[in-house]
Write a structure and sequence with these properties.
- By secondary structure, the protein is α/β, with parallel strands linked by helices.
- Helices cover 43% and strands 20% of the residues.
- It contains twelve helices and ten strands.
- The protein has helices at 3-13, 16-25, 32-39, 43-55, 77-87, 94-129, 135-146, 163-167, 182-194, 232-242, 261-265, 275-284, and strands at residues 30-31, 59-64, 67-72, 151-157, 172-179, 200-204, 217-223, 243-254, 288-295, 308-314.
- It has a seven-stranded mixed sheet with strand order 6-5-4-7-8-10-9, with helices on both faces. Strands 1-3-2 form a three-stranded antiparallel sheet.
- The longest helix is centred in the first third of the chain and has 36 residues, at 94-129.
Length: 337
């Protein structure tokens, strides 16, 4: 950071309430109402503190419907500074412990709502799973493709229940799952907490415009996401932008099929993808395709079975930076699984 930016960031953090806000946001995204309830302060005061933290580049805001949420920035160096600062705060301090307990109470209330949502929609996801090879076979192929290395920063786009973060929890130092569905994100947080995945976080994110800096992620996964998107090529380009040189992109989706009911009943925008189609998008995004594996269900007389394809690509070590582009998107969806 430049000296002036560092001084401004330190000044913004050097206030008791703002430091408490940073501690809370380090545990996950929250809105103004959440923070007023947890901290016991008025909305105007909380809003003022949030404004100063945003201006200093420590946190970022995003709108989800009529709500505005905040999280520690992953796009600006101030976010890394914020994480270093809160890491040195004594967690046993009375005010810190009290804030954490209130935040946990709030999260438990939301988790109850999220559990109901998941139970209501679980049958839909289970029905889709019966159309292709067993999920454990797909997950084994995903782990095989990414290899045995450890990733400093692992990103799951369209994280849904957070299952991919759980699957690779032993292979990353820090994991981040992004999705547009707040209820699913709440469920994913509860799921990851229950499984002890403390190195992973989930938060709201636009797959077409990731709130991440260039060349930051060592691995990015898009598991059953592309078929929900109106512009898969743009999403792949954005995933490529955030990859470090040598970073890997793993895509899991369906091979071409003719099950029209998935478009009409399950909101699938695309009925699968060919090897050539995805390879072309990867190359256009500046990535080098590395492997493709088709997982075909065993023939049992059914004509509605789907082939799952696993693509792996890599960002070359020597490459010009990928420029972020913006495009109007009418219908942005991320896969929930």
């Amino acid at each position: 950071m430049r000296t002036a930016d560092l001084v401004a960031a330190l000044k913004a953090a050097a206030e008791p309430t703002r430091l408490r806000i940073l501690l809370l946001l380090a545990g996950g995204e929250l809105n103004v109402k959440d923070l007023t309830l947890i901290l016991g302060q008025s909305q105007p005061r909380i809003s003022r503190h949030l404004k100063l933290l945003c201006e200093a580049g420590l946190i970022e805001r995003f709108r989800d419907g009529s709500w505005v949420y905040f999280h520690i920035s992953d796009r600006q160096p101030g976010g890394r500074l914020a994480l270093r600062l809160v890491a040195d705060v004594d967690p046993s301090e009375a005010s810190v412990r009290r804030d954490r307990e209130r935040a946990e109470t709030l999260k438990r209330e939301r988790e109850s709502v999220a559990q109901s949502f998941f139970e209501e929609h679980a049958a839909d996801w289970d029905r889709i799973r019966t159309l292709h090879v067993a999920e454990n076979d797909v997950e084994a192929a995903m782990r095989r493709a990414l290899g045995d290395g450890t990733f400093d920063f692992f990103v799951d786009l369209g994280t849904g229940t957070g299952r991919t973060l759980e699957l690779f929890a032993d292979r990353f130092e820090r994991g981040l799952g992004l999705d547009v569905n707040q209820t699913m994100l709440t469920y994913a947080r509860a799921n990851l907490n229950a499984k002890g995945c403390g190195k992973a976080q989930v938060r709201h994110g636009d797959i077409y415009s990731l709130a991440l800096a260039d060349a930051q992620a060592d691995a990015v996964v898009m598991h059953q996401v592309l078929h929900f998107l109106s512009d898969p090529a743009l999403a792949i380009r954005e995933a490529a932008r955030v990859l470090t040189p040598g970073g890997k992109l793993l895509i899991v989706d369906f091979a071409p099929h003719e099950l029209e009911f998935l478009r009409t009943r399950e909101a699938h925008e695309r009925l699968g993808f060919t090897h050539e189609q995805v390879a072309g998008w990867l190359k256009d995004a500046g990535l080098a395709p590395k492997s493709v594996e088709d997982l075909t269900p065993k023939a049992d007389g059914r004509d509605d079975m789907l082939t799952v394809t696993v693509w792996l690509a890599e960002r070359p070590v020597t490459q010009m930076p990928i420029t972020k582009i913006s495009a109007p998107v009418e219908d942005v969806r991320e896969g929930a699984r």
